[in-house]
Amino acid sequence: QYKFRDLTIEELKNVSKTYPNFTFSMNTYTFKDGSQKDLLNFSGTVPVKYGNSYNIPIQLWILDSHPFAPPICFLKPTANMGISVGKHVDAHGRIYLPYLQNWSHPKSTVIGLIKEMIAKFEEELPLYSLSSSDAARQSELLSYIAKITEGETDMKSRSKIEGKSEGCFNKITVVGAGDLGIACVLAVAAKGTADKVILLDLSEGAAKGGTMDLEIFALPNVEISKDFSASADSKVVVLTINSLGNAQTYLDVIQSNVDLFRGIIPAVSHYSQNAVFLVASHPVEVMTYVSWKLSAFPKSRVIGVGANLDSERFQYILTNLLKAEVLAKDAWVIGEQGEDKVPSWTSYHLVAHQTEGVAARNTREKVANRAMEVLKGKGQRSWSVGLSVADLTDSILKDKRKVHSVSTLAKGCCNINSEVFLSLPCILGTGGVIEMVKLEEDPVVQEKLQSSAGSIHDLQQQLKL
């Protein structure tokens, strides 16, 4: 059942050579949402020097998407050991490390993970020795913790008591705790569609800036976590992460983002296998393509925010500033986000368009050009993109069947033959893209879309997935 069996076996052989005390077995792991899988796991001790020398017992569970997803790591305290809750260990013995958060194959390995684990444990010892009386009193608690470390949870029973199954929740996960991620959380929470909003903060160290403020001024139904499993069973996963590396070229910047996604998409996909992925990272067309490839989700369930914000603004400008409400009804901004976006019309009213005279068509084009000029003066700040994301998630969760201009696989449209994502009018529902809406045939628009598709495809060919 392991997707990359040979790579996994090869790596575990290396682990066995370096740490011969580890024992390997196949057991059932129960995730937080109650789902179960038979997973390979290994247990053993790692040597830690903290004044004296200690052997710290650990257990690592290997996901079936390994080595593209990081292991799930726990301490395995014996009856005479207590857990020292700290920066890298929680009360249940779950281990959190920067190495896990930044996991990216082939750079990341289990051997490298264990080395960092040892280094962090030498800074802050994760276990302490209990007296015999303490050990006796805590034996029952440790028994429960042992169940937790094997992946068991009482979440299902709690859900039943509350009268609502966790699987029925409208749960949204926002990946990335930068300005855009926090803006998305606030906008989605304000919209009130989601029962639960998870902010997955993958940054290193303690909470900073907006994340810290979210913790201080706690919002109902909003949870901040560094644990991928917190995203389990999400209906929508919003991706806002962008690499802040020191890349020198545009291609290097995008490759850095791709490397970041390689450590995130498989893990998030594993925990929310029926989710709709909504990509807001830059460049949105390329990163939506990358998310589609890495997740192996159907194209309908991987979309980018695309020109949804521009389209909503475009329609608003036509209706409220230029008083062209009739034109605004089926007007869209499509194509590539940025300078190469283009106005177009869907074919809902093709009959009316076909009967338009030359003068009427010219008037329409002039009004559209004026609207696009106004649009150029509007930036895309984090909060405005957050509002657009909330708008899209609302349509998905409520199955509104509303038309949005979003980045979707454009192959087969406008004579585009390559696998590229462009913003096109699509009907959205609980399964993501339900249907692409037919555009009015316009040679100029088609030429621009084909040009964008060509440049995006060339860029994608240079990336290492």
Automatic annotation (TrEMBL):
<dbReference type="Pfam" id="PF05743">
    <property type="entry name" value="UEV"/>
</dbReference>
<dbReference type="Pfam" id="PF02866">
    <property type="entry name" value="Ldh_1_C"/>
</dbReference>
<dbReference type="InterPro" id="IPR036291">
    <property type="entry name" value="NAD(P)-bd_dom_sf"/>
</dbReference>
<dbReference type="GO" id="GO:0015031">
    <property type="term" value="P:protein transport"/>
</dbReference>
<dbReference type="GO" id="GO:0004459">
    <property type="term" value="F:L-lactate dehydrogenase (NAD+) activity"/>
</dbReference>
<dbReference type="InterPro" id="IPR001236">
    <property type="entry name" value="Lactate/malate_DH_N"/>
</dbReference>
<dbReference type="Pfam" id="PF00056">
    <property type="entry name" value="Ldh_1_N"/>
</dbReference>
<dbReference type="InterPro" id="IPR001557">
    <property type="entry name" value="L-lactate/malate_DH"/>
</dbReference>
<dbReference type="InterPro" id="IPR016135">
    <property type="entry name" value="UBQ-conjugating_enzyme/RWD"/>
</dbReference>
<comment type="function">
    <text>Interconverts simultaneously and stereospecifically pyruvate and lactate with concomitant interconversion of NADH and NAD(+).</text>
</comment>
<dbReference type="InterPro" id="IPR022383">
    <property type="entry name" value="Lactate/malate_DH_C"/>
</dbReference>
<feature type="domain" description="UEV">
    <location>
        <begin position="1"/>
        <end position="131"/>
    </location>
</feature>
<dbReference type="InterPro" id="IPR008883">
    <property type="entry name" value="UEV_N"/>
</dbReference>
<dbReference type="GO" id="GO:0006089">
    <property type="term" value="P:lactate metabolic process"/>
</dbReference>
<dbReference type="InterPro" id="IPR015955">
    <property type="entry name" value="Lactate_DH/Glyco_Ohase_4_C"/>
</dbReference>
<protein>
    <submittedName>
        <fullName>UEVLD enzyme</fullName>
    </submittedName>
</protein>
